[in-house]
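Write out the bound-state structure for EPU.
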Amino acid sequence: MTTQPVDLKPFNSFGISTKATHFERFSTIQELQVQLDNRNNQELLILGGGSNVLFTKDFNGLVLRNEIKGFEITSEDKTTVIVKSGAGEVWHEFVLNCIDKGFAGLENLSLIPGSVGASPMQNIGAYGVEIKDVFQSLEAFHIETGEIHSFDAEACEFGYRESVFKRKLKGQYIILSVSFKLSKNPSINTSYGAIESELSKMNISNPSIRDVSNAVISIRSSKLPNPKEIGNAGSFFKNPVVDQSIVDEILKTHSEAPNYPAETGKRKLAAGWLIEQAGWKGKTIDNYGVHKLQALVLVNYGGATGQQIYDLSTAIINDIQQKFGVTLEREVNIL
Ligand code: FAD
Ligand code: EPU
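---
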């Protein structure tokens, strides 16, 4: 185990400099077991790519980076294939690997940063698809007993940017592998408006899964900051799910306000739109702020502290509450 505190800046996409008392990597269950045996009751944090966390203070405990690799076809028939990936694989590389093999279902989720193992944590989603749509099962290490448990989709209790691992089982499991049910006969999903227009810009009328992936990559690259250049963790807030009456009230003064169907009797508002309307888009305070192309993304231009970014998020929440009567919820995991 490391004896010197370790700076976590290279291990979080916000580029926040913060210290962990101990930092280790594991690429097998045996290594994980040894590191947990040496843990001595310290607080524990499992890290994948660090692209959905904000460190607001030093981490007084043990950070374990999941680097379990592996890509395996565990079963297949004429139309479907079950692909199992090690939790430490890079998500986008895994998606491209599936596309190379002609396995469809993940192409709309291209270019999402982070690891495969974190993908079920918040049921990652983009461009009309969430992983719950193609999820088969996962294997997870139960920290208290050392047993390996299997979870199907129902047991994961997936919701919008939610799963059982963020709620009642929070902190209890380490995800080791995830299996996805993919299709050999793709039915392309281009229902998300921007994909159709991107494909027609590319002069493609009969898209392959690679075309859809390329379209998604192009749209994402045009508005989301690359964490290698500007520190960020993607959408900082969830899109709020609210009662129809709140939407009606907003539409009275802003007839163009984007809103989408959600669970029965509810609508989803676009948090980015609310934040832009409130005047925050592109706002910069010293070396951090709100991204100029996507108001849902808070950015660290270099050297900001996590506490400064957290305080900015609080100011935005208060302002949106006051202006629209809507409570924004943070999507990023605050540490
Ligand atoms: P980390 O940040 O390392 O961890 C996230 C959480 O999961 C932490 O609580 C951590 O403790 C826990 N965790 C990680 N791995 C494990 C494991 N193996 N077992 C148990 N717990 C674990 N998300 C979307 O849903 N859609 C998007 O379109 C999207 N776009 C993004 C764009 C950008 C530019 C960025 C920077 C982020 C974006 N995100 C998006 C958020 C992020 O990519 C996802 O949440 C991703 O799944 C995080 O993976 P990670 O490995 O980096 O997780
Ligand atoms: N909008 C604005 N101003 C902005 C940003 C957005 O008016 O600054 C409007 C857009 O014009 C559009 C609507 O808000 O009408 C939705 O915008 P967009 O399609 O860009 O998506 P989003 O709701 O801002 C969500 C996810 C993203 C995901 C995209 C694409 C959440 C919290 N965010 O963003 O996920 O990539 O849709 O599907 O659900 C992430 O989770 O980190 C993430 C980036």
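---
The chain has a mean pLDDT of 96.
The longest helix spans residues 306-324.
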